[in-house]
Amino acid sequence: MTPAADVVAFNAAASAAETPAALAEPVTPVGKRFIALFTLANLGLFTGMFGAASLLLPRQIELVSPNGKEAVLALASGLGALAALLANPLVGALSDRTTSRFGRRHIWTLGGVVIGALALTLLGGQASLAGVLVLWCVAMAALNGMLAALTAEVPDHVPVQQRAVTSAFMGLMPATGSVIGVVVIVFVFTELSTGYAALAAIAVLLTLPFVLTTRDAALPRAVLTPFRWRDFLAGFWISPRLHPDFAWAWITRFLMQLGSAMFTLYLLFFLRDRIHYEQVFPGGRSEEGVFILTLIYTLCALLTATTVGLLSDRSGRRKIFVIVSSMIQGAGMLMLAFWQTWIAVECATAIVALGYGAYIAVDQAMITQVLPAAGNRGKDLGVINFAIAGPYALAPVFAAPLVTKLGGYPVLFAVAGTILVLGGIFVRNIKSVP
C-alpha cells in the first residue's frame, strides 16, 4: 500500500471511530428477534390506527351525524391526517436531538403509543361531533409521532442489504393491523366503547416488548449543534434542487399513498350503498364484507411482499419493482371502476393487494437510501411521512366530490388507479438507487 493510501485508510478509520453509534451507518445485520419485535410494534400501531379508521370512526360518524355522513367522515379524516402531518416530522426532528440515556427513539415510541391509546379509549365515550373530532386528532397526532420514531429505527439499525425484507414486514402491518382490528370489532368487542378500548390495549401491549428489550443507542450531547428555532424550522425544508432523489421519492410515495387512501376511505359505505352487501347476503353486515376484503388484501400482499423483498435485497434493485407494482394496482382499480359486483370487488382487491405488497417491500428500503444526512434521519423520514399523512388529508377533499357529484364510485376508482400508475412512472427519476 502506498503512503497516500495509508493516509486515506487511517483517516477513514479515524472518522468511523469518531462517529457516535447513534449516527453511524449500520453494517451488522440485525437478528430475527429484532425484526420480530419491530414488526410487532408496527402491528400494534396500525391495529390501533387503521382498525379504528376503517370501521369504528365511520360507524361513530353515522351515529353523531347521520345526515351528510360522507362529508363529515371526510372532515374527520382530513383533520386527523392534518394532525398526523404536523406530528410526524416534528417528533422525528425532536427524536434526532434527544440525548436520553435510553436512546433517541424509544421514549417517543412509548409516549406516542400511551397518549394515542388514551385518546382512543376516551373517543369511545364521545357522543358529540366536536368531541369525536378533537380526540381523533389527538390520537392521530400521537400515533403518527410513534410512527416517526419507529420508521427511523430502520436506518438507525438495519444495514442496506436487509432493508427491503425488514421494510416488507413493516409495510404489511397496516393491512394486517386492519384485519386484526376488524376481527376484534366485528366479532369480539362490538360496542364502540369496548372496541376502541380493545384496540388501544393491543397497541400498547404489542409495542412494549420492542421498547423494553431492544437497544437504542444514546446520542452524546457533544455532537449536537446549538438549538436555534430558525434553524430547526428551516430544517423541514429539503431542497429538491440539492436533493432531487429525495424529492422524487417523496412524490412517488405521495401519489401511491393518495391512490390507496382514495380506495379505502369509503369502503364501508361503498359496500353498503353501491354493492348492497346486506341485500346480497341477507343477515350479513357490511362490516363483515370489509373484514373479508381486508383479509384477502392482507394475504395477497403478504404473498408478494416477502418474495419481492428477498428479490430486491439480493439483486440490489428497487425501482423496477415499484414500477411494476403501480401498474398492477392501477389495473385492479380500473377493473373495479368498470365492474362493480361483489365478485368483482373481491378479485380487484386481490389484484390491488398483489401490487401493493410488491410496492411496500421496496419503498421504505429505497427511501432510506436517499436520506440527506444520518444526523437528521428522524426528521427527514418525518418529512417523507408527509407523503403518507398528506394523502389521507387530501383524499377526502378529492374523493368526496367524486363520489357525491362527479360520477360516483366508478370515477373515484378510475382516478385512484390513474394516480397509482403515475406514482410508479415518476420513480424512474430517482438516479442514485438502481
Please trace the helix and strand order, writing H or E for each element: HHHHHHHHHHHHHHHH
| Count, helices | 16
Supply the CATH superfamily name: MFS general substrate transporter like domains
* The CATH class: Mainly Alpha
Rounded to the nearest angstrom, the radius of gyration is 22 Å
Give a brief rundown of this model.
By secondary structure, this protein is an all-alpha fold.
Would you give an account of this structure?
By secondary structure, the chain is mostly helical. The protein has one domain: Up-down Bundle (Growth Hormone, Chain: A). Helix content is 77%, strand content 0%. It is built from 16 helices and no strands. It has helices at residues 3-18, 32-64, 69-96, 106-123, 129-157, 163-188, 192-213, 229-234, 244-264, 267-273, 277-280, 286-315, 319-338, 342-368, 377-404, 409-426. Helix 2 (32-64) packs across helix 6 and helix 4 (106-123) packs antiparallel against helix 5. The protein is globular and about 70 Å long. The two termini are 32 Å apart. Residues 1-17 have low confidence and may be disordered.
